[in-house]
Design goal:
InterPro entries: AAA+_ATPase (IPR003593), ABC_transporter-like_ATP-bd (IPR003439), ABC_transporter-like_CS (IPR017871), ABC_Transporter_VariousFunc (IPR051782), P-loop_NTPase (IPR027417)
CATH superfamily of the largest domain: P-loop containing nucleotide triphosphate hydrolases
Protein name: ABC transporter domain-containing protein
Distance between the termini: 85 Å
Radius of gyration: 25 Å
Shape: globular
Number of helices: 10
CATH architecture of the largest domain: 3-Layer(aba) Sandwich
Keywords: ATP-binding, Nucleotide-binding, Transport
Largest sheet: 6 strands, mixed
Number of domains: 2
Structural class: alpha/beta
CATH topology of the largest domain: Rossmann fold
GO molecular function, one term: ATP binding
Pfam families: ABC_tran
């Protein structure tokens, strides 16, 4: 079991103190976490809850006040374990006057990756993040979404076993967000472990296997996404090929009453705004020139006869 643990914290605590050594803020209080190999783990919480502090402790950028942080079975303060970690911060600190190829070559050199491997890996990553046509542009000319994409490529240049993503969909439009979520799932399929922080709860719900919720430095909840979101009091029934009617409602209400329950709602399910947006874009690609017409206009003839 220990070999399957990529990240483990034991009573991990971080207290910030003022100039005179007095306790100023407890950023993290006795955190116990276990992240297993090959899973996507979400770290949730409002600003100031301890998410960034946790990441910095795992990367060895901060010293813990007490407790232990282990990554790949080694203390987090061991620098060598970072060779197996890829990190995408919320704001990528990249050199603005380098282009995409030069950026990946620079970070590949930091990991002592051989030239031929470095060039091939950079080419594949640039293609993977959709920047092939912009690979020669300097990063100063990139939009925030493009900088997020090259930042992800930088985080993967060393082919890491653990990928830490801080707000990975920040600055991305709905298409880019879907692309990012699909890519995160693909990283898991490759056997990589992903730790992601996000304020967008729908993103976490879509991709994460397990989550931990922090508030004021304390761990408030932890578990599988499906188990945490399941409402055991309510029972959901879905059917196809039937229309809502008063008679149907009466019969369903009587059936629920028979088994000690109460019918709360009968109606047609709704999709999400993201799903609707993506479907419309795909339909627009398949039908060039498609545009929205109000119902009154759409009911009218496309080419009304000319007046004589």
């Amino acid at each position: 079991m220990a070999q399957d643990l990529v990240v483990e914290t034991r009573s991990l605590t971080k207290v910030y103190r003022d100039f005179w050594g007095r306790r100023k803020k407890t950023a993290l209080n006795a955190l116990d976490l276990k992240i297993e190999r090959g899973e996507i783990f979400g770290l949730l919480g409002p600003n100031g809850s301890g998410k960034t502090t946790t990441i910095k402790l795992l990367l060895g950028l901060l010293f813990p006040t007490s407790g232990d942080a282990l990554v790949f079975g080694e203390p987090a303060l061991q620098v060598r374990k970072n060779e197996k970690i890829g990190y995408l911060p919320e704001e990528s600190y990249l050199y603005r006057f380098l282009n995409a190829e030069e950026t990946l070559d620079f970070y590949g050199r930091l990991f002592n990756i051989p030239t031929d491997v470095r060039e091939e890996r950079a080419r594949k990553l640039i293609d993977m993040v959709g920047l092939t046509n912009d690979r020669k542009r300097i990063l100063r000319e990139y939009s925030k979404g493009m900088r997020q994409r090259i930042g992800l490529a930088q985080a993967l240049i060393n082919d890491p076993e653990l990928v830490i993503l801080d707000e990975p969909t920040s600055g991305l439009d709905p298409l880019g967000t879907r692309w990012m979520k699909d890519l995160i799932k693909d990283l898991r399929n490759q056997g990589k472990t992903v730790l992601m922080c996000s304020h967008r709860l729908d993103d976490v719900q879509d991709v994460c296997d397990r989550v931990a919720i922090l508030y004021n430095g304390d761990l408030q909840e932890q578990g599988g996404v499906k188990e945490l979101l399941q409402d055991e009091i309510r029972l959901e029934v879905q059917a196809r090929g039937v229309r809502e009617s008063d008679e149907l409602k009466k019969e369903l209400a009587a059936l629920m009453t028979k088994y000690g329950g109460e019918l709360e709602f009968v109606g047609h399910p709704t999709t999400t705004l993201e799903e609707l947006f993506l479907r419309i874009v795909e339909e627009s690609k398949a039908r060039p020139g498609r545009r929205f017409l109000p119902r009154e206009e759409s009911a009218a003839p496309a080419n009304p006869p000319a007046k004589s």
